[in-house]
Amino acid sequence: MNAGAINANVWGMGEVDPVVEARESQIRAVKPRSTWDRERFAREQIRGLVRQVFTMQKPCPVRQVVFSAIEARTDVRSVCMRVGEALASEARGSVAIVGSHSRSVEVQSTGSEAEHLRKNAFVLGNGLCLLPAKDCSGHDYGASSVHAYMGEIRKEFEYSVVEGRPCGECDEALEMAQFADGIVLVISAEHTRRVMARKAVERLHEAQVRILGTVLSDREFPMPERLYHWL
Predict the structure, then answer these.
(1) Within-domain flag for 155
(2) What digits encode the pLDDT tens for the residues 58-108?
């Protein structure tokens, strides 16, 4: 992921209320001013997203979510890793991060899907595992094959975070999200064009895909430093 921090929420900016400024001055008088920590802010945003998507969806719990960008240049893999790590620390049960990982977790060509999962899972600890994406090189590759693979993952793991291909460039992420419990869109402040994001959202709505949230990555924050202490 690029240098910009992650933002999993949306907020607006306006004029600073005088009461707020007065209250901030009082706080600074009793508490030394600290430097805003971008990495800590990103972790807090991801943690909030995990709670909103996975642990607060009742009475229909969310267990399997596809993360997809609009275009290929946006880094989805790092977001999935962050979400998986936060989910493993927040939720009870095993967590699988499914995506284009290293060759140590490549899919083998023999055995059942369940055997593939056991043989190819790379255990990170704390109930967290890495799993490879479905191999798309075979002649029988298709939506049904991907759905079968995701179904086996759902059986073996309590939660799964799935790295999807860009939904603005192909239908694979859309088809995966139709099978999963929903999709989270990863939008880059540097690369994603608004018109492309709008079209992708329209396609997802037309396909009746449940949009669970968005992640804004690669964002630089131009706000005055004093406002960071209120986030």
Answers:
(1) yes
(2) 678 899 999 999 999 999 999 999 999 999 998 888 999 999 865 444 444
Residue 64 included in any domain: yes
105's tokens: 């977790």
Structure tokens of 46? 């991801």
CA 7/CA 165 separation, integer angstroms: 21
Cα(151)–Cα(133) distance, rounded to whole angstroms? Answer: 13
**Mean pLDDT computed over every residue of the chain:** 78
Residue 97, domain CATH: 3.40.50.300
Residue 21 has pLDDT above 60, yes or no: no
Sheet with 5-7, side-by-side order of all strands: 5-7, 211-219, 183-188, 64-69, 159-163, 95-99, 128-132, 122-125
Domain range holding 130?
49-221
Distance of CA 34 to the CA centre of its chain: 29
Could you give the C-alpha distances from 90 to 3, 63, 83, 93, 154, in angstroms and in order? 26, 13, 10, 10, 19
Within a domain: 5? no
What total of structural domains would you count in the chain?
A: 1
Put simply, whether the predicted model's pTM sits higher than 0.90 gets the answer: no
**Helix, strand, coil share of the chain (percent; to 5):** 40, 20, 40
